[in-house]
Amino acid sequence: MKPILKELTRYGKLLVEKGLTTGPGGNISARDGNTIHLSPSGYSLAEIGPDDWVSLDLKSGRRVGRDNGLRPTCEVSMHLACYLSRPEIRTVVHTHPVTATAVATAGVKFKALFPDFVALLGREVPAVDFVTPGGEEIRAAVAGKVKQGHNVVLLKNHGAVALGVTLKEAYFRSLLLENAAAFLLAILAAGGRPRYLTPKEIRSIECLEAEDYRKLLLQKGV
Ligand SMILES: [Zn+2]
What we know:
By secondary structure, the protein is of the alpha+beta class. Helix content is 43%, strand content 16%. Helix 2 packs parallel to helix 5. The longest helix has 23 residues. The chain is globular. The protein binds zinc ion. Zinc ion binds next to loops.
């Protein structure tokens, strides 16, 4: 059994446990050379076993290795487009986080709010308007943002996509996005308005040596 399939299986369960997606929603994948391992269509991410992943060749989209009789996620073209857009990307995690999706759908901006936001999500998380799932529209909308260098994209009325060099990095980004949404919601519930970090404050966080060290650990999967 390839270690990457074990890891995908573990993170699939974690994403459901943490409430980032529910029922058969969400899909995840990982890149191993030119092979992409994708979650099968119609499964809860919590119930996928190590033999249930669907492996495709990145360039041709053809099946690689043993055919387990399962179809890949219907978002297969969105996943492949992310890998083709940015060669350093090794994992794509698409979830349906309730609070982040609701807050983005309400039109609230996800801009830098606290130090971990800057370190893991970047200066801003873009939100794209609703597009039909499972086809060309969502592929183009997400790939457009990924090509601009964004590692997390919000999909209004739908969910979010987080990328990573490791599964742990994409998982942490998914968790932190929902955390940022709870932060925004708490500010709004307290009757306030979001106070985003200034460009100077963002730069000071980006220059922290400790953040470089944490990023390095995450990208090694430690
Ligand atoms: Zn979805």
